[in-house]
């Protein structure tokens, strides 16, 4: 029994320094000095096109899609109307309703989001988290989304979201947004 306890303590001592750095993660504050400064109401105003893919936990691309977003803001409230077209020909629509708060903080709701999304913008980055009700083969799963966006210039933004269930990484969504030029 004593030998088993020592072995467990030794394994914990070895594993802790390896595992803990992965738990810390990045912070939106890490990007506070980055340019261009992301203003969600400015970027997501008008029409934005996106191309994206979902990769499973092994890295295999299992779904590709394009999105056309019609976005508008009135004061601190925004509507992002997203029309998805998937590589298999299927379509989906999601309408985000966003509210800008103090200190770059935002909240959002959508029909397939459980509760409320919360996030914050700093510098060129926006980070938010939410629970998505994801239908798969007739069953709806609630998955946790850890969503990061990075504005590259006035027209391009990159997005990477990690999907988890019970803390287990299921896969990642990667998108490239391009804001249409205003004539």
Annotate the secondary structure layout.
Layout: H1 2-24, H2 40-43, E1 46-56, E2 61-74, E3 77-86, E4 91-100, E5 105-109, E6 113-122, E7 125-136, E8 139-151, E9 156-165, E10 168-179
Antiparallel strand pairs: 1-2, 1-10, 2-3, 3-4, 4-5, 5-6, 6-7, 7-8, 8-9, 9-10
Structural write-up:
- The protein is mainly beta and 183 residues long.
- The chain has one domain: Beta Barrel (Lipocalin), CATH 2.40.128.
- It is 15% helix and 58% strand.
- It has a ten-stranded antiparallel beta barrel with strand order 1-2-3-4-5-6-7-8-9-10.
- The longest helix has 23 residues, at 2-24.
- It is globular.
- The chain starts with a helix and ends with a strand.
Short description:
The protein is built from 2 helices and 10 strands. The protein has helices at residues 2-24, 40-43; strands spanning 46-56, 61-74, 77-86, 91-100, 105-109, 113-122, 125-136, 139-151, 156-165, 168-179. Pfam families: DUF3833.
